[in-house]
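WARN no homologs supplied; continuing
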Amino acid sequence: MTDKAGALPAATAAALAGLRRWLGNQALMAGVVQDVACGFADGLLAAGIPLWRAYLSATTLHPEMEAFGLLWTRDGGREREEYSHGSWGQISSPSPIYEAVLAAREAAATDPAGAQAEDIVRLTRYRLERGEGVDRYPILAEIHAAGATDYLCFILPFSFDGTLHPLRTGASVTLATDRPGGFTAAEVQAISDLIPGFGAAIRIGVDLAAFRTVLGTYLGRDVGRRVLHGEIRRGSVETISAAILVGDLRGFTALADALPQDQLVSMLDDYLDALATPVEGHGGQVLKFMGDGLLATFAFAEGDPAETCGQALAAAVEALDRIAAINLRRAAEGVPVMTLDVALHVGDVLYGNVGSGQRLDFTIIGPAVNEAARLENLCGVLGVPMVVSRRFVEALAAPERFRCLGLQTLRGVRVPVEVFTPA
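OK structure emitted
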């Protein structure tokens, strides 16, 4: 309730001031988006704002997801939704959020300076107990039937250079109450004053999650984490012991000249996914894709080398099985196939930043890496899909699982090496 002058009660105003400080702290600490969103809704309710339902949706940068949504309800409901790429353009039913975003885009396009000079956060309100929007938007009819009396929709644009551009990334926040009469004017004003701070805290969390996703997607989980934590100085390397996996798709070069580009890329994605997914699923790290192949490691760290090598071998076997399944399907469809060659090796490698002053690569280098690549080249020569070094067999400590292929000469390696393949 408000006092006779229409202002917020002192206790509510004080609680909202505390909530404002909390939002600022969350922005500084890059709080997890879901925690910030639920904390904000909980804070409004605790301050005396009669919040019944809250919903946040925000765009994100992710290879498999365009946006996500978080639903909060007063009775303790907490739900997360993820929207695949193209979901926004597929909205067909009328939506108050969709139309509010379109209006924000138009405003930014037609008058970016004017919009920025005042408040770039746009508010649309529907007094549901008066019937506003109920006949037009199914979601409003649904929540009105469940008891909602008032609905606020805020659109928060995310810009990148201090200029308000037509909205491409951002967030939307909807708040609903079930109190007869809806929100008071003072409550709407108080919430509106808090929303930019809430948006800033959300923006930091969304961006940090996007940074982690981008770094993890392009560099790998461990490398992405290290780079984000500041390990970007050239020459900063450490020696690690690891199982090394090198995989290469045989036949890709010939197909590259014969297939249309879209079919070639789609085919390569399918095969590389079949190779990379088992590596990551068994605890390995894909350091880089090399055209039609990849380089991966399974670091020993403090673990048992035999167990780690077992995971590397399991990943290689699973990758071969997945490739075989793809080839069965493609052969039935009458389209070209490729085979996979895999090499497994063990050794000490230098792990860290190498490159020029302005362009670095976080990777592994050393004789063991070169030897692993040479081992993979033997697959075609020896007519087997997997070649394993003696070092790997000894580290796995299960020689009965392999058969010897004899001594082989590796290019650039002076002494012939004994190689194996799974029995």
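Residues 246 and 373 are 6 Å apart (CA to CA).
OK
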